[in-house]
Design goal:
The complex is a heterodimer of chains A (379) and B (369). Chain A has 3 domains: 10-122, Immunoglobulin-like, CATH 2.60.40; 135-254, Immunoglobulin-like (Sandwich); 267-375, Immunoglobulin-like. Chain A has helices at residues 10-13, 16-28, 61-64, 165-168, 204-207, 212-217, 289-295, and strands spanning 34-37, 44-47, 67-71, 87-92, 95-100, 110-114, 118-122, 135-139, 144-146, 151-156, 169-172, 190-191, 197-201, 226-231, 247-254, 267-269, 279-282, 296-300, 308-313, 318-323, 330-337, 354-355, 368-375. In chain A, a hairpin with a 5-residue loop joins β12 and β13. With 379 residues, chain A is mainly beta. Chain B is mainly beta and 369 residues long. Chain B has a domain at 177-332. Chain B is built from 3 helices and 27 strands. The relative contact order of chain B is 0.12. At the A-B interface, β3, β12, β13, α5 and α6 of A face α2, β7, β8, β10 and β14 of B.
Chain lengths: 379, 369
């Protein structure tokens, strides 16, 4: 292994300016040098008496590296020091500001070393002691799920830390025994842009028929059995705080769903005219939460899309739309994207896994489909 | 003579107009500034030190000018123990707050680039030259970018208007003037594979492909590609793609046309309870091989001649207790390899979780592969 030079300070020791710093500080003592950590933990400044010496004549980065910061230690040792933290330097006479690439953590000790001789140990002031995140919802909402359930969504009250999901979410059978590798480990993890909702896929190799994982190990969930989805409270939010509670959700498994999503038997509840009452669509099965939220929209008969608020409710059996302005009497069209999925990943065009030997099956190739409804004028 | 003058003045003019006279055509559209990268999920090197970054949060591909173009004099083995601890220390945090998203080797300088997310997903790019790390200034850099979002429908947004759907980029490669991107939606189950002409111009030069694989000739599904490699088979370029549920599938590149239903040929299954992580090619005694890293299986070495001579789809269901099926491979004694790239034709760099729990970077020479 090649030798690392992370904490090789020898080159600075040979620097004339640094020699001066070292010498003078040892003469004048540490009282001459003052450290200051920014309240938001994004930088540390060192003030030194520039009336006495000019250690960094050009304020170039390499010269400013007379200030080095180490994480997780309170004093230096000969051999086991970690590398100094990477960051950017800014220098003005008598002052060096170091901005680490990542703000200092509130739960870690740091050591600032100036001129290889003056040490300053600090631990940033913790944020106001707020509790960690709460798990808000687990989708699907209902306990009863098909054997070929494809994914679950978890939503949290605060942004969560990446890299923990497959350690923190587990499935146990009726005897409390953990199911081995129920989920496909996807990197990047499928967080939304707020880091508050994550998508977890069951291992598709054990959902799809005839793939080797399923042939050897069977499906993750077996019809007729009951399982528990467990969420471990050790899961940290972005601030490093654990969840408020651990969670457990029962999964009662029924037969596989191998039917395409059909819109024929959906019930449309048209709202009253001149109101902002919701348009309600009742599905004939439980839909996938996220695709249900995204796949439906309401259009006027002249082809304009309505803006408004969308919600998925009644345990994902219902889609609601509240318009931005009052409903007017007339004909409207609901557009349903073909990517709308049920719990088993079947959509409007195709089944999740297709049996090619079934000659009656044909997948479709449409981007969306329409359902019309009318709001009548009051009599 | 007149033509000569015009040409000469044009050349002079362009020399004046270029931000950096040393820059070539491929960087002529680059601007210097803050690309506002939000996540660094996948990396790939293009020509002339251009580093492509797949940003899932922004659903964009960035091309960054690393200016790291000085060829390495010699390719020496690289090794570094406790990479995650080293990186955590360099970033002033702890290993549990650091996720290494990808690792690539600059084919010119042989420096190793790490894409890292810290705490709240703050993206950091680190360069390791075999000796020390440095952080790349990703907020002030020459770059160009292209978006991946195709406006289909009106996505649900949260209370602050941020979209809930994410397009997670699983792998990225550059081949013959094109950036290839595989990814999956955080919502519907589908595989998206795009080829984008580089230098980036406009959305017209993107093609989105639908790719299917058939399992045992009977069941057919959309599925997300986890990792892929453009590779020559049967004398023409193919895509060797590994799916999340472990089939290894090949697609001829010239048959992959936008909007066309492209069905790949499944040539192997890489084992259950396993996720493929990376594919590279290397040479041993002048002969080319493929190397596959997996989440819970040893490193697999595949002779591409066996893929070429493999005539059938996987037809027979996998026999019981058999770990894998299809094209034969050799399991090499490297387990828990998390990232992999080639240093040169006969050296492969591995980031491997060792039995003592440490995450080490080391070089495997072809005589050991």
């Amino acid at each position: 292994m090649s030798r690392l030079n992370f904490f090789d300070l020898s080159k600075f020791r040979h620097h004339l300016g640094l020699l001066l710093v070292g010498t003078l500080i040892s003469c004048y003592g540490r009282a001459q040098v003052k450290f200051e950590v920014a309240e938001n933990r994004t930088s540390i400044s060192v003030y030194y008496p520039d009336s006495l010496f000019k250690p960094v004549p050009n304020h170039k980065a390499a010269e400013l590296e007379v200030l080095l910061i180490y994480a997780g230690i309170t004093g230096r040792t000969e051999a086991a020091d970690p590398p100094a933290i990477l960051g950017n330097y800014q220098g003005t006479p008598g002052k060096i500001v170091f901005t680490p690439i990542v703000p200092f953590s509130r739960d870690l000790s740091y050591l600032a070393v100036f001129g290889d001789t003056v040490e300053y140990h600090f631990r940033p002031v913790p944020d106001k002691d707020e509790p960690g995140a709460r798990l808000l919802r687990i989708y699907p909402t209902e306990d009863t799920v098909p054997e070929n359930l494809l994914k679950i969504y978890l939503t949290f009250s605060k942004p969560m830390r990446e890299g923990e999901v497959y350690k923190r979410v587990t499935i146990t059978d009726e005897n409390g025994k953990s199911i081995e590798n129920p989920f496909v480990h996807i990197q990047p993890e499928l967080w939304d842009s707020t880091a508050q909702r994550i998508t977890i896929w069951f291992d598709p190799g054990r959902v799809k028929r005839s793939l080797q994982s399923r042939e050897l190990h069977g499906p993750v969930l077996t019809s007729g059995n009951t399982y528990h989805l467990r969420v471990d409270s050790l899961w940290k939010d972005v601030q490093g705080r654990p969840l408020i509670n651990s969670y457990k959700k029962r999964l009662i498994v029924t037969d596989s769903d191998r039917k395409r999503v059909l819109t024929d038997s959906w019930q449309i509840h048209a709202p009253e005219p001149y109101s902002k009452f919701p348009l309600i669509i009742k599905f004939d099965e439980v839909m996938d939460y996220a695709t249900a939220l995204n796949s439906l929209s309401v259009w006027t008969s002249t082809g304009e899309i309505l803006t408004g608020e969308v919600a998925v409710g009644s345990a994902e059996r219902e889609w609601k739309f509240i318009p931005g302005s009052n409903w007017k009497p007339g004909i409207y069209n609901i557009r349903i994207l073909s990517t709308l999925e049920d719990l088993a990943g079947n959509n409007l065009n195709r089944l999740f896994d297709v049996d090619l030997s079934d000659s009656s099956y044909q997948s479709l190739d449409r981007q969306f489909t329409w359902i019309q409804f009318e709001i009548l004028s009051p009599e | 003579m007149k033509t000569f003058f015009t040409l000469a003045s044009l050349i002079m003019l362009s020399g004046v107009m270029l931000a950096n006279p040393g820059d070539s055509d491929i960087k002529s559209g680059f601007i210097v500034g803050d690309p506002e990268i939000k996540s660094v999920n996948a990396l790939a090197f293009g020509p002339e030190g251009v580093l492509f970054i797949g940003d899932s949060q922004r659903a964009e591909i960035f091309a960054l000018d690393t200016k790291d173009e000085v060829p390495a004099n010699e390719v020496s083995d690289i090794s570094l123990n406790s990479v995650d601890q080293q990186i955590a220390s360099l970033l002033g945090t702890t290993t549990d707050a650091v996720v290494i998203q990808d690792m690539v080797v600059n084919p010119i300088s042989k420096a190793v680039y790490f894409a890292v997310h810290v705490n709240d997903g703050q993206p950091v790019l680190l360069r390791f030259d075999g000796d020390a790390f440095e952080a790349l200034a990703i907020t002030s850099v020459g770059f160009s970018k292209t978006g991946l979002n195709k406006a289909v429908g009106e996505d649900a947004v949260d209370r602050r208007g941020r979209p809930l759907r994410k397009w997670a980029i699983t792998d990225l490669a550059y081949y013959d003037g094109k950036v290839m991107v595989s990814g999956l939606s955080s919502e519907e189950f589908s595989s998206t594979f795009r080829t984008i002409s580089f230098p980036f111009d406009d959305a017209q030069n993107q093609s989105s492909l639908e790719m299917y694989h058939a399992a045992h000739g009977q069941y057919e599904t959309h599925s997300p590609i986890k990792t892929f490699l453009p590779y020559e088979l049967h004398g023409s370029m193919h895509l060797v793609a590994s799916y999340t549920c472990t089939p290894l599938v090949i697609f001829p590149l010239d048959e992959m046309k936008p909007g066309k239903h492209t069905k790949g040929k499944t040539v192997a299954e890489l084992g259950n309870r396993n996720t493929p992580l990376d594919i590279v090619s290397y040479k041993k005694e002048g002969k080319s091989y493929l190397l596959l890293a997996n989440s819970s299986r040893a490193l697999m070495k595949i002779d591409p001649k066996r893929i070429e001579s493999y005539q059938d789809y996987l037809v027979e269901p996998v026999s019981e207790n058999s770990a894998t099926a299809g094209v034969e491979f050799i399991a090499l004694p490297y387990v828990q390899v998390q990232q992999m790239d080639k240093l040169n034709d006969d050296k492969v760099l591995l980031l491997q979780r060792m039995t003592d729990g440490s995450l080490n970077l080391h070089t495997a020479n072809s005589n050991r592969l």
